[in-house]
Known about the structure:
heterodimer; A: alpha/beta; 2 domains; six-stranded mixed sheet; 14 strands; B: mainly alpha; 15 helices; about 0% strand; globular; binds adenosine-5'-diphosphate; binds magnesium ion
Amino acid sequence: MSAIVETRELTKFYGATRGVENLNLVIQPGQVFGFLGPNGAGKSTTFRLLMDFIRPTSGTARVFGLDVRDNSLEIRTRTGFMPGDFALYPRMTGHQIIEFFSAMRRVDAASEARVLAERLDLDLGVTVRNYSTGNRQKLGLVQAFMHKPELLMLDEPTGGLDPIIQQEFYGMVAEAVRDGATVFLSSHVLPEVERIADQVAIIRDGALVRVDEVGAFKREATRVLSFTFAKPVDENEFTNLDGVSDVRTEGNRLVITSSGPIDPIVKAAARHEVIDLDANEGELEDVFLAFYEQEQ
Amino acid sequence: MIRSLSSGSLSGKGIWDRRKTLMWWSIGMALYVVLNVAFFPSLQEETFSDVFESVPEAMLAAFGIQDIAALSTGVGYVNSQLYDGFGTILVAAWAVAIGATTLASEEDSKTMDMLMSLPLSRPRVVLEKWIAMVVLMIALCGVIFVALLASNPIWELDLSLGGMAWVNVGLALLSVMFGTLALAVSAVTGKKGLAIGVSGGLMALFFLLYGLGSVVDILESVRGVSPFYWYLNSVPLAGTVSWLGLGGMAVVSAMLLLVAVWGFNRRDVGV
Ligand SMILES: Nc1ncnc2c1ncn2[C@@H]1O[C@H](COP(=O)(O)OP(=O)(O)O)[C@@H](O)[C@H]1O
Ligand SMILES: [Mg+2]
């Protein structure tokens, strides 16, 4: 099956300002693809190019195998989009927005929208002007999901949402994927992408730094293991193990920081009597920060 | 029915969103018509030359009064107060305001990304917004027509039904033309300030050219380029229609609409 989203050397300059440069992105059907990068990296530019709001300086982009310019209408029919920085008509109620968007899409999405609004704890009877930022965000999500699109493109979707609603959103993404959709979402913070994405692309200064499976990043994540032994051990037994960056002893306790394989550490520790072991989950954040901070 | 007008189409929404503005414009223009024509009988009793003696001819012309003697007839009087004068400018100004802001405001207020994420082609967005403007102009000119129709017997203006109808058809066309010019500028550039400036400036220029052209010799020969000339020179209020004039405004409007579609279709939106 061909890619859902494919860009070739996609480049956008705003006058002299770089938006994105030579972007080669491939998103396969059924993926949850996380687009991760700091503010100003070029995430919104990429989405807006794919939606044909702006035109590339050079390079090409295809969605569903269709040219984003020539077949924009078909792409937009089959896509649910939530812009990164958007407003909705302030004088309309949530219901009226849904009604208007459904009419423009020529679909009857009212009942699905009601279900989604309920899940996200959003009152559709309120005028948009009186919505909080979080509620406006929720309405943005409802309109993106309500027509059950094949592709969801969500530009920083969870920014203003509280944790419980975020969980609900993760559920919505999982169900959409289960029903055959592909999801392309961006974030400038890791946890929301880490939680649901299969594939992650890191973008910085308009260029992709790395594209990989979340698992691959996780394997490189720094772990901190702390052992409590029956009696003090020599830290030199651990310092030369693969990936170990720091070893500290404190009486019977030994704390190891490592981004390498776990097995040799455990085997080395097993030579002694281990009373307690505490291992925190890998801090993926550190891996990403390492990318963010390169050359800075 | 009314609900579906508001949310069933983009043009319907464009009309529905401005229903209150239309109401205020309608009240305002109807009052403007009635208050102006209400002075007709009293003016008739005075001698116009006394009133306007000291006012320079060019000044009067600029304000739409070209022939003082004509003020004693209903046609001449209503023309000077309404159609040759600021009534026309007011109506066209609203068209310019709509044309300049209908796209640009959505970009400025960031609703455009949501709108454009819907499966609506860019030409369709421009066309539907234009249709909303046209409908609003027809509605407002219709209200002015009715106000004049009602005033006609009360103040014995002696206007013909055809004259009242044609002058308002022309008014709607002229307004749509300037509104479409504003739409075209904002569609091409995305700048509503520029759209208002260009359209308002040209409107003022053409208005003065038409008015002053009747008394200033060097302007006489170029007066024909003014759309106000196309609209008014045949005196449509007297029932004398200039098909060339009406057709000219329609053709220019259509060309400007094409420019708007082309301009909006080619550029980056919401940047
Ligand atoms: N409309 C615009 N005009 C000029 N520069 C822009 C515009 N939009 C974005 N940029 C620039 O392009 C770069 C990428 O921005 P953006 O795509 O919004 O990044 P992100 O969404 O990752 O925060 C930034 O340097 C930004 O300043
Ligand atoms: Mg962004």
